[in-house]
Amino acid sequence: ARIDLRVCDEVDSTNAEVLRQVAEGCGSKLPISIADCQTAGRGRRGRSWQSPRGENLYLSMGLVFHGGFSVLDGLSLVFGVAVAEALEMLGVTGVGLKWPNDIFLPAGKLGGILVELQGELQEGVVRVVVGIGINVHMLKAGGVDQPWSSLASACPDTEWTRNRVAAAVIGAVADAADDFSNKGFGVFREPWQKRDIYNNRLIQAKDGELKGVGNGIDGSGNYLLVTSDGGVVPIRAGEISLRVA
Ligand code: BTN
């Protein structure tokens, strides 16, 4: 497919920008948007994403999948694996995934992924916008409510440029999307699980109502908690968030 790459100085949200391009009808082109800063960066679960100018990567890609919404189970985890692999190719070590698709380094969250859908415009055709935010140079952050990290602070001996990170991530996401379309989610299960930061840890969901030991994902990408009575509870993506108990 032909790529339609737009790099701009400032945008509300690169996800919103790609969704607009898709709504206008981008044909067979794959829209990609990169911005130097975002004025209304979006995070998962309705949160905002701090997007200071010049420091980080804000990237969104529009992708097409066939087979209707049901084929999308697990897709957001696929993108997490792709970003982790891209960073590892650039020499980053210790990249972890926090279900469903937060990118972690030992010091804290390095990046996040927001997947948004643009309905079935034609029968069976689903357009997906995957938005990826990666902290590259960020040295201080206002309003970020959890420990975070950046490539420059974690790997100070590397000269980080956003171009290099963007190129690696775009390639990895496109390849992963092809693999997912051709082979399904199954081939991503092991690559996801080996980076699972919650594996074997006591974690909680629903404000502590649900507690269990992290035990990886099932074949659809649901997270599995083993509770104290030995039961296995699958947590569906989008349902609730997990944290350390
Ligand atoms: C999360 O909450 O962890 C997901 C954050 C996703 C942020 C990226 S930055 C590029 C793209 N545009 C947005 O508005 N959000 C995503």
Automatic annotation (TrEMBL):
Source organism (scientific name): Marinobacter xiaoshiensis
Which E.C. number(s) belong to this protein? 6.3.4.15
Question: Has keyword Flavoprotein?
Answer: no
Which residues are in the BPL/LPL catalytic domain? 1-181
UniProt protein name: Bifunctional ligase/repressor BirA
Enzyme class label: ligase
Summary of the function given for this chain in its UniProt record: Acts both as a biotin--[acetyl-CoA-carboxylase] ligase and a biotin-operon repressor. In the presence of ATP, BirA activates biotin to form the BirA-biotinyl-5'-adenylate (BirA-bio-5'-AMP or holoBirA) complex. HoloBirA can either transfer the biotinyl moiety to the biotin carboxyl carrier protein (BCCP) subunit of acetyl-CoA carboxylase, or bind to the biotin operator site and inhibit transcription of the operon.
Which keywords does UniProt give here?
Answer: ATP-binding, Biotin, DNA-binding, Ligase, Nucleotide-binding, Repressor, Transcription, Transcription regulation
Which amino acid positions bind biotin, per UniProt?
13-15, 38, 42-44, 109
Q: Which GO terms describe its molecular function?
A: biotin--[biotin carboxyl-carrier protein] ligase activity
Q: Which reaction does it catalyse?
A: biotin + L-lysyl-[protein] + ATP = N(6)-biotinyl-L-lysyl-[protein] + AMP + diphosphate + H(+)
Q: Which gene encodes it?
A: birA
Q: What family does the database annotate?
A: Belongs to the biotin--protein ligase family.
